């Protein structure tokens, strides 16, 4: 089973992505959480265009990606889990948790270090919040993130199948928790025991700084609970809160070409161009 998953990685990832995209698109149309304010056509071509650019960037810039590196580490006996005896299921679950915690810490770091924030803030300049916001990351951030993931794989030595599962889960949960879907409040409350919900992550996209400095998790909410970065709700409420960054309100910045140069834009100048 595990070898089958590794051999069919590409089709599994693409299939899971397409199914989730379809389900959430319909969900957002049927039961939207908030009305959208910017052009959906512009946002979708930009955000989905980035998915295409980022996939090619990773393929062309890295000789080997995290899954391939995990297979190599397994062959060469590199990393912790390749040198200790533990049942496969334990190694897979532990690897999923460590990788998810690493992504949480990386997200905190991208907010805290000014140079990294310049790259990551592009994710936050979306003026609306829907499933495509979860796919909106600068290509350089995607490359750095892959480098960090490969570093974690080198130290941890996770089973390659765990890395495939991790990538699929992260992609699916990122789309889900950015979606503009109205979940019944009791369902949201229940899901928050083990999953980051759209209402939980939306707080992270607030223009209010103390709110965007909370809820960093993408898949499980436990790291935010554990490290004290959890904030239950936005102070203005979900319907009235403003999404994005105060410094970049001009809709022209939603176009794909502006997304690439976002890290080089000066915030003060952007306010005056509105
Ligand atoms: Zn962020
Ligand atoms: Zn986000």
UniProtKB/TrEMBL annotation:
It is found in: Membrane. Keywords: Membrane, Transmembrane, Transmembrane helix. The chain crosses the membrane at residues 12-30, 50-72, 84-105, 150-172. It comes from the Bacteria. Residues 93-229 form the Fatty acid hydroxylase domain. GO terms for cellular component: membrane. GO terms for biological process: lipid biosynthetic process. InterPro entries: Fatty_acid_hydroxylase, Sterol_Desaturase_Related. GO terms for molecular function: iron ion binding; oxidoreductase activity. Pfam families: FA_hydroxylase. This is Sterol desaturase-related protein. It comes from Vecturithrix granuli.
């Amino acid at each position: 089973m595990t070898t089958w998953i590794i051999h069919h990685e590409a089709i599994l990832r693409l299939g899971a992505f397409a199914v989730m995209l379809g389900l959430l698109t319909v969900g957002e149309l049927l039961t939207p959480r908030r009305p959208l304010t910017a052009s959906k056509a512009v946002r979708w071509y930009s955000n989905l265009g980035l998915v295409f650019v980022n996939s090619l960037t990773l393929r062309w810039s890295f000789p080997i990606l995290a899954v391939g590196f995990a297979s190599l580490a397994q062959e060469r006996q590199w990393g912790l889990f390749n040198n200790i005896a533990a049942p496969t299921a334990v190694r897979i679950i532990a690897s999923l948790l460590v990788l998810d915690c690493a992504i949480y810490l990386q997200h905190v770091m991208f907010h805290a270090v000014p140079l990294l924030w310049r790259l990551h803030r592009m994710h936050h300049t979306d003026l609306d919040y829907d499933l495509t916001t979860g796919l909106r990351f600068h290509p350089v951030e995607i490359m750095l993130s892959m480098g960090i993931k490969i570093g974690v794989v080198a130290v941890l030595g996770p089973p390659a199948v765990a890395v495939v599962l991790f990538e699929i889960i992260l992609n699916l949960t990122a789309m889900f928790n950015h979606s503009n879907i109205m979940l019944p409040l009791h369902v949201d409350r229940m899901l928050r025991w083990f999953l980051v919900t759209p209402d939980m992550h939306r707080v992270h996209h607030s223009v209010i700084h103390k709110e965007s400095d909370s809820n960093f998790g993408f898949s499980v909410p436990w790291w935010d609970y554990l490290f004290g970065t959890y904030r239950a709700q936005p102070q203005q409420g979900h319907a009235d809160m403003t999404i994005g960054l105060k410094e970049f309100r001009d809709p022209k910045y939603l176009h794909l070409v502006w997304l690439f140069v976002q890290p080089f834009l000066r915030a003060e100048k952007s306010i005056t161009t509105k």
